[in-house]
Automatic annotation (TrEMBL):
InterPro entries: Class_I_gatase-like (IPR029062), Peptidase_C26 (IPR011697), PuuD-like (IPR044668). Coiled coil: none annotated. This is Gamma-glutamyl-gamma-aminobutyrate hydrolase family protein. GO terms for molecular function: hydrolase activity.
């Protein structure tokens, strides 16, 4: 491929100045442009109005971003609670359609944080709404700090599963990652393979076992340090390589 890959990102839905906005954090956009050498395409969270198959025929990859919102418990059969908000049901609907179709069409997929959780739910898995409330688990939430660099600082190890997709990208590990999440994988979705775990056993990375192309989910935030951290950069470079290798439709 001579042109930069086109990467589709499903948007979050936000309300600002009495308008509904479809948006994505710029840290993901910068990682895609500066490290993956690609062009991000923001996709509105309008699952009933967007032809996902037509979209995926025109792009080279899909990236699911993290978000302040949590996957709605209705998506994985748990009772909703105000304590687990905020939610973004429009994004939930869009990403579920997008994940299934992306895998079916063999489009490369990188799913980060909320995206990692969405990937598990799309394959029939469940989530723990608040990991810090489970006995024996670490507190995976972001620290309270006014500086984003401190909130996104690399804080704990993850153990890499031998022989997996992630090991082929970052080596045998362990690697150190950041941690800014409340939800986490509970029951692993059918058709997913564990690629990494935190010291407390939390599943930190998964791949789609039978995917025809690159399909990786990570619970941490490699986008924030993609320009300076070796493992973070390697993930984005491997994703970009898969996107460039995707056969083009005539």
């Amino acid at each position: 491929m001579s042109r930069p890959p086109l990467i589709a990102l499903p948007a979050d839905v936000r309300t600002f100045e009495n308008y509904c906005w479809h948006a994505a954090p710029d840290t993901y956009l910068k990682a895609l442009t500066r490290v993956a050498g690609s062009i991000p395409i923001l996709v509105p969270a309008m699952a009933e109005e967007i032809d996902v198959e037509a979209l995926l025929a025109r792009v080279d990859g899909v990236m699911l971003t993290g978000s302040v919102s949590n996957v709605h418990p209705d998506r994985y059969g748990a009772p909703p609670s105000v304590a687990h908000e905020p939610f973004d049901p429009d994004r939930d609907r869009m990403t579920e359609r997008l994940i299934r179709t992306t895998i079916a069409m063999g489009v490369p997929l990188l799913a980060i944080c909320r995206g990692h959780q969405e990937l598990n739910v799309a394959f029939g898995g469940t989530l723990v709404p608040e990991l810090q409330e489970v006995e024996g688990r670490m507190d995976h939430r972001a620290i309270k700090h006014h500086e984003q660099r401190e909130r996104f600082a690399i804080r704990h190890d993850v153990a890499i599963e031998r022989g997996g997709l992630l090991a082929s990208i970052v080596g045998p590990g362990p690697i150190r990652v950041n941690s800014l999440h409340r939800q986490g994988i509970d029951r692993l979705g059918d058709g997913l393979t564990v690629e990494a775990r935190a010291p407390d056993g939390t599943i930190e990375a998964v791949s789609v076992t039978t995917a025809a192309s690159f399909a990786l989910g990570v619970q941490w935030h490699p986008e924030y340090w993609a320009e300076t951290d070796a493992a973070s950069r390697a993930i984005f470079e491997a994703f970009a390589a898969a996107c460039r290798d995707r056969p083009q439709l005539s």
